[in-house]
Amino acid sequence: MLNRRLLRIKVLQAVYSTEHQQEITIQYSKSLLHTYINNYYKSYLLCWQFIVRLCLYNVNYKERLEAKHIKSNEDVNYSLNLANNPIIVALKNDIAFEKKVESEKQQYIVKEDDLKTMFNDLVKKKKYEEYINADANSLQYDQHKRILIYIFNKLLLKSSLFKSFLEDHYINWYDDREYVYKNMNDTIRNLKSDPVAFYDIYQPINKESIFFAESLLIKTLRNRTEYEQIIEPFLKNWDLERVTTVDIMILKLAICEFCEFSEIPLKVTINEYIELSKLYSTPKSKDFVNGILDKLMKTLKAEGKIKKAGRGLVDM
Hints:
Layout: H1 4-18, H2 26-66, H3 73-76, H4 86-92, H5 95-103, H6 112-122, H7 126-132, H8 141-156, H9 160-169, H10 173-189, H11 207-222, H12 224-231, H13 245-260, H14 266-280, H15 285-302
Helix pairs in contact: 1-2, 1-11, 2-6, 2-10, 2-11, 8-10, 11-13, 12-13, 13-14, 13-15, 14-15
């Protein structure tokens, strides 16, 4: 399931993209939202494809060693532990994964030269050397998982080539990267010995995730004028030149959650939108959003516009 904060970010991006455009339809805004969410999944999928292709390059590397005119015993007996990693083999043989990659037109994105450069860096790593030289029959499933986590965290994420690669292909990579990092690590750590379609864990087709994001977007857009009127009286003591468009959008989204999402605790909403203000607005926006949201919450509660139901949702 997609992280709720990531979904809020995608809604904020969709609202921001349509803020100054005339006659924007709800359908267009929804389409924009889906594009942003799908781009997150595409970058997550591309990370998986890069790992698979990099591990399978183990075969190419062995062939290069065997092609030497003068070969050492190590060259001749170089192992294919990485290419035979059961997780990699499962993905290599997964027709659904292959079709997914093809449907996103990603099969030609990862270039052979990039793989060669990255693999040449990998063979210098001690962790890789320990894994590749281990007896294949003695390797445990956790060891197969750990080498993939190591490759992703210690090789790919520290590579300027890999970062540029993703930035070039996905415009929102900077916003999505921390979530992709976390989800890649979580996915690998939680893999069972017989992985089936594990790359789908964070696919944005989860009905609950999409329903939340669409509802937040649609209700915020439909009620934007009302929310602006609610916010306006609370801006009197603030320097309006320092209040950004993003700050106002964040307040609108928060009001929508206060009033329209009875299952989300008030404290969660306030904390989430304070975090978004830190990420996407000015250094002083955190204090502004915090102060305004606290007053808005108290006023809306007093007016009976906030109706929360369930344990832990009412009091704050």
